[in-house]
Amino acid sequence: MTHTLHLTVQHPHPGIAIATIVGDVDVHTAPTLRSGALEIIQQGHPRLVLDLAPVGFCDSAGLSAIIGIWHAAQEAGGSLSLAAVPNRLMRMLSMTGVDSLLPVHATTADAVAALTDSPPASANR
What we know:
With 125 residues, the protein is of the alpha/beta class. The chain has helices at residues 30-42, 60-75, 87-96, 108-116; strands at 5-13, 16-25, 47-51, 55-58, 79-83, 104-105. The chain is 38% helix and 28% strand. Strands 1, 2, 3, 4, 5 and 6 form a 6-stranded mixed beta sheet that branches. The protein starts with a strand and ends in a 9-residue tail after the last helix.
């Protein structure tokens, strides 16, 4: 397990960001994930896709960070989608029921397509 986490961000469309997470998401790195994602949302990208393909490990602290990011995105009138979720993390999402709250896509392209095919959450209010 590594104690470093890196986020790289792409902006494929206005208001949408893809954050690729590289590293393990655990008690040591979850705060970095949460603060990085919240900064992206606050910068005007409330529809966020987390690309989890490079994540080797995620514990309950990481899951808690993902749920916190989901809440922050909703409060900003946006959404959180997960892409390329590793099998081990997908099992955790399924066991906890989080997979019923968050859209999970096979690829980031699928996640972005789903976001661009639907209006932002704030437009539905």
